[in-house]
Write a structure and sequence with these properties.
The protein is of the alpha+beta class and about 525 residues long. It has one domain: Gamma-glutamyltranspeptidase, small (S) subunit (Glutamine Phosphoribosylpyrophosphate, subunit 1, domain 1, 4-Layer Sandwich). Helix content is about 35%, strand content about 15%. It contains 20 helices and 20 strands. The strands form 5 sheets. A 7-stranded antiparallel β-sheet has the order 6-3-2-10-9-1-20, covered by helices on one side. A 6-stranded antiparallel β-sheet has the order 7-8-13-14-18-19. Strands 15-16-17 form a 3-stranded mixed β-sheet. A hairpin with a 5-residue loop joins strand 9 and strand 10. Helix 6 runs antiparallel to helix 10, helix 13 packs across helix 16 and helix 13 packs across helix 18. The chain is globular, with a radius of gyration of 21 Å. The two termini are about 30 Å apart. Keywords: Transferase. GO terms for molecular function: transferase activity. InterPro entries: GGT-like_enzyme, GGT_lsub, GGT_ssub_C, Ntn_hydrolases_N.
C-alpha cells in the first residue's frame, strides 16, 4: 500500500484505553472530555457538547435545526434517534407555484421545517445519568457571558453578511454594532441562554406553549402556512432501531429515514471487497468510490422518499450485483457536497459510543431568528424538498424532506471497531464511505483517514443544483497520475483546493484496536476541531 499524499499534522492524543472524543471545535471537544473524565457516559458527553456547539458553531448547528444520533451500548445493542420535522401543513406544490416559485426558497420563513433537534435531545436525555440543566450549563454560560469569535465564526459571518444583516434578531447576535466581529471579540447570545434554561427543564417545550407560539407567530407573519398541528407533532420522536449493512466482515449501523444513512450502506454493499487490493486512492479506487456514490444518488432521486421503504429494495444482493458492473463508467452524477453542519463522536469508559450530527442545513440555516428567543431556524424544507409533481420527495404536508444528515458505527463479534461522522451536505455519505474504507481496507488510523484528500460526485440532489454538468471533484493532493488516468478513462475530473472552513466537511472518527482495546481518535484538519483519547 502506498499513500499518494502527505497526511496533515496529527491531532490525535492517545493517553490510554478508557475514553475518546472528537469534535469540530476545541471548546466542544474539551466539554466532552470533561464530562467523560468526570465519569459521565457518552450520552452525557454528547448532550453537553451539543449545547456548547450551538454557541461556538452557530452557523453549523442550533436548537432550531435537526439532529440525528446512533448509540452503541456496551452490550452491543444499537439504537438511533432522528430529530427532523415537517414543513407547514399548507405548503404543497400549489402553494409554492401559486407564488411564482420553481423551487422552494432557500432562506426566510418559507424554507423552514419544524425543528427536530430539541426532541432528539429530549430522547437522548432520558438515557443520560445527569440532568440537562447540569449538562447544558457550560453552553448556557457561554451564550450568556460571551464566547470568543474564532476564525471560522468570522469566515461564516463574513460570507453571509448581507442576509444576516437583513434579519434584526440575527444581526443583533452576529453583527454587533453592524460590523463583522474580529477574531477574539466576545459574542453574546443572551436570548438563546434564556431559551436553553427553559428547554433544559423540558426540551419538548419547543413544540407547545410560549416558545411554540412565538415561533409560529413569527413564521406566519412571514407567509409560512403553519397550522400549528405540525409543530406539535415535532415532539413525537422515539428511539428507533438502526438500519444495518456489512463491509469487510463488519456490521455497519446507520440512522434510518429521513436520514441518508441507507446511502452509505448502499455504497458499502457495492464496494465490499473491491478496494482492499488496490493502492490507496489510486485511479481504480477513486473511480469505484465515485461510481458507488453515483449509483446511490441516482437511486435516491428516482425512487426514495422519506415515507417509503424503497431503499430496502436497493440493497437487494442481486440488484447490487448488477449495479457493480457499471461502477467505474463515466456519466452523469447527481450529488452536491454543499452544506454546513457539525458532528461529534465519543466513546466512554464502559465502551458505549455515540455518533451525533446536527445542522441548520445551510450556514445559519434560513438566516432568520425567532425574536426574543435566540433560536436561529434551519432551512431544511428549502434544502431538501422538491417542487416536482409526483416525485417521491415532492413537498407535501406531513412528509418530512429527505435529509443529508447521517451517523454511523461499525462493529463485529468482538465489539466496537469504529465510530464516525462527517458533515457536508450530500458529501456526507460519500466521505463517510471513504473514511470507512481507509480504516478497514487500508488499516489507517483515524487521523490519517479523516485527513486524506476527498472526492465527491457533482451535481446534486439539492433542488437548486439539479441538472448541472457532471463532474468528479477531487481535493488537491491526489496523485497527478491518478487524475490523468481518470481523465483518460472519460471522467470529467475537477481539482479543487483543500479549503479550510470550506465545503469539504469535517470528518470525525474513533477506532478501537481489537487486540489491545486501545482507542485512537482523529479530527478533520479542515476545521478547528480536536480529538483526544485516553
Amino acid at each position: 500500500m502506498t499513500a499518494p499524499v502527505a497526511v496533515a499534522q496529527d491531532k490525535q492524543v492517545v493517553l490510554g484505553r478508557q475514553a475518546a472524543v472528537s469534535a469540530s471545535h476545541p471548546l466542544v471537544t474539551a466539554e466532552g472530555a470533561r464530562v467523560l473524565a468526570e465519569g459521565g457516559t457518552a450520552v452525557d458527553a454528547t448532550l453537553a457538547m451539543a449545547a456548547v456547539s450551538w454557541v461556538a458553531l452557530p452557523g453549523q448547528c442550533g436548537i432550531g435545526g435537526d439532529a440525528f444520533a446512533v448509540v452503541r451500548e456496551p452490550d452491543g445493542r444499537v439504537w438511533t434517534v432522528g430529530g427532523s420535522g415537517y414543513g407547514p401543513d399548507g405548503a404543497d406544490l400549489a402553494f409554492f407555484r401559486g407564488r411564482g416559485h420553481t423551487s422552494i426558497p432557500l432562506t426566510g420563513p418559507l424554507s423552514v421545517t419544524v425543528p427536530g433537534a430539541p426532541a432528539a435531545l429530549g430522547v437522548l436525555a432520558r438515557e443520560a445519568t445527569r440532568p440537562l440543566s447540569q449538562l447544558w450549563a457550560r453552553g448556557i454560560d457561554l451564550a450568556r457571558h460571551g464566547f470568543a469569535c474564532t476564525a471560522k465564526n468570522r469566515y461564516d459571518i463574513t460570507e453571509r453578511r448581507e442576509p444576516l444583516a437583513a434579519d434584526p434578531s440575527t444581526a443583533a447576535c452576529f453583527l454587533p454594532d453592524g460590523r463583522v466581529p474580529e477574531v477574539g471579540r466576545l459574542l453574546h447570545q443572551r436570548d438563546l441562554a434564556d431559551t436553553l434554561d427553559v428547554l433544559a427543564d423540558d426540551p419538548f417545550a419547543m413544540y407547545t406553549g410560549e416558545l411554540a407560539e412565538r415561533a409560529l407567530d413569527f413564521l406566519r407573519a412571514g407567509g409560512a402556512p403553519f397550522s400549528g398541528q405540525e409543530w406539535a407533532l415535532g415532539a413525537q420522536v422515539e428511539p428507533a432501531p438502526a438500519i444495518t449493512g456489512t463491509y469487510r466482515g463488519l456490521t455497519v449501523h446507520q440512522t434510518p429515514l429521513p436520514s441518508a444513512g441507507w446511502m452509505m450502506l448502499h455504497q458499502a454493499a457495492l464496494l465490499d471487497g473491491l478496494l482492499a487490493d488496490g493502492d490507496l486512492l489510486d485511479a481504480a479506487s477513486v473511480a469505484a468510490l465515485a461510481g458507488a456514490a453515483r449509483a446511490a444518488f441516482d437511486d435516491r432521486y428516482a425512487l426514495v422518499g422519506s415515507d417509503t421503504d424503497a431503499w430496502r429494495e436497493l440493497l437487494d444482493p442481486e440488484r447490487v450485483a448488477r449495479q457493480r458492473a457499471g461502477l467505474t463508467t463515466a456519466g452523469p452524477v447527481p450529488a452536491s457536497p454543499d452544506g454546513d453542519t457539525t458532528s461529534m463522536v465519543c466513546v466512554d469508559a464502559e465502551g458505549r459510543s455515540v455518533s451525533f450530527i446536527h445542522s441548520l442545513a445551510f450556514t445559519f440555516g434560513a438566516r432568520i431568528t425567532v425574536p426574543g428567543t435566540g433560536v436561529v431556524l434551519g432551512n431544511r424544507l428549502g434544502r431538501g424538498a422538491y417542487l416536482v409533481e409526483g416525485h417521491p420527495n415532492e413537498v407535501r404536508p406531513r412528509r418530512k424532506p429527505l435529509h443529508t444528515l447521517n451517523a454511523w458505527v461499525a462493529d463485529d463479534a468482538d465489539g466496537l471497531r469504529h465510530v464516525g461522522s462527517c458533515p457536508g451536505g450530500d458529501g456526507q455519505v460519500q466521505w463517510n464511505m471513504q473514511v470507512l474504507s481507509h480504516l478497514v481496507d487500508h488499516g489507517l488510523d483515524p487521523q490519517q483517514a479523516v485527513s486524506l484528500p476527498r472526492l465527491s460526485v457533482f451535481p446534486g440532489s439539492d433542488a437548486d443544483v439539479l441538472g448541472s454538468p457532471a463532474q468528479i471533484r477531487v481535493e488537491a493532493g491526489l496523485d497527478p497520475q491518478t487524475i490523468a488516468r481518470l481523465r483518460a478513462d472519460g471522467h470529467d475530473v475537477v481539482e479543487i483546493p483543500v479549503q479550510v472552513f470550506g465545503p469539504g466537511g469535517s470528518a470525525m472518527a474513533i477506532s478501537k484496536d481489537p487486540t489491545t482495546g486501545v482507542l485512537s481518535a482523529g479530527a478533520d484538519p479542515r476545521m478547528e476541531g480536536m480529538a483526544i483519547a485516553w
